[in-house]
Amino acid sequence: MSTSIRNHLPGTIEKIVSDKVVSEIVIRTAAGNVTSIITTGSVKRMDRKEGDTVFAIIKATEVSIERNSLSLSFPAAELLAGSLLGAITL
């Protein structure tokens, strides 16, 4: 499968929590844990289970940055720590 989405993080499924409709998938990546919410039907159709190697594919229309995340205003599952390597001014 080919995709135009550039943000692919390889990882391993750490945990799956499912109910009848949706499932929470926690993926351990080198950048930290990434949480995905997908339908339980998709989990079953793709036959995903804990320990599987997968890619977290991130499509975002906006990525915000914060200098220091001492006061977590978002759940920790939604934060990735990193360093600013450069900036492009348009």
Task: Walk me through the structure.
The chain has a domain at 1-60: RNA polymerase II/Efflux pump adaptor protein, barrel-sandwich hybrid domain (OB fold (Dihydrolipoamide Acetyltransferase, E2P)), CATH 2.40.50.100. It contains one helix and four strands. The protein has a four-stranded antiparallel β-sheet with strand order 3-2-1-4. 7% of the residues lie in helices and 38% in strands. The chain has one helix at residues 40-45, and strands at 7-18, 22-29, 32-39, 53-58. 4% of the residues are buried. A hairpin with a 2-residue loop joins β2 (22-29) and β3 (32-39). The mean pLDDT is 82. It is mainly β and 90 residues long.
